[in-house]
Amino acid sequence: MSDERVRYSDADLQEFKAIIKEKIEKAERDLQLIRESFINDQNNGTDDTSPTFKAFEEGAETLSKEQNSILAGRQEKFVRDLKNALIRIENKTYGVCRVTGKLIPKERLLAVPHATLSIEAKNMQK
Fold first, then answer.
1. Sign of the C-alpha dihedral computed for residues 107, 111, 112 and 118 taken in this order
2. Cα first-last separation, the chain
3. Judging by beta carbons within 10 Å of its beta carbon (0-12, 13-18, 19+), is residue 12 exposed, middle or buried?
4. pTM for the whole thing?
5. Considering only CA atoms, which of 104, 110, 116 is closest in space to residue 22?
6. With helix as H, strand as E and coil as C, how does the chain read?
7. What is the pLDDT along the chain (126 residues), one digit of tens a residue?
8. Phi, psi torsion values for 108, nearest 5 degrees
């Protein structure tokens, strides 16, 4: 058996690269929408509303901003993970499990293109 590491072919890597670039574009658009809704400081006209209802609305607004902040953080991590996958494609290490050294099945990479672990390795972590 040769010492050369198993890896995906250049054609496969180009296919994954196209998929990942498309996902990055969509994820960045989604992140922009999340950021815009987070920054949105429009007053919904509660100045003349009963103080009780105004308090409810302000509480809901705070919760919504917290949720958007959490979503933005998760989306930023997703974009970062996808960009890291592109680096692995350039290094020709994409699709190789970082624990087992075996190829991650193509079906898994199509579903989770930023995966760095095979299902086998994920199950070992439990």
1. negative
2. 31
3. middle
4. 0.76
5. 110
6. CCCCCCCCCHHHHHHHHHHHHHHHHHHHHHHHHHHHHHHCCCCCCCCCCCHHHHHHHHHHHHHHHHHHHHHHHHHHHHHHHHHHHHHHHHCCCCCECCCCCCECCHHHHHHCCCCCCCHHHHHHHC
7. 344 558 999 999 999 999 999 999 999 999 999 888 877 645 555 555 555 555 555 555 666 778 888 999 999 999 999 999 999 999 999 999 999 999 999 999 999 999 999 999 999 987
8. -65, -40
Which pair of structure tokens corresponds to residue 108? 């898994």
The token duo for 66 is 């917290």
Residue with tokens 């692995």: 88
Residue bearing tokens 């250049």: 10
Q: How many residues does the chain have?
A: 126
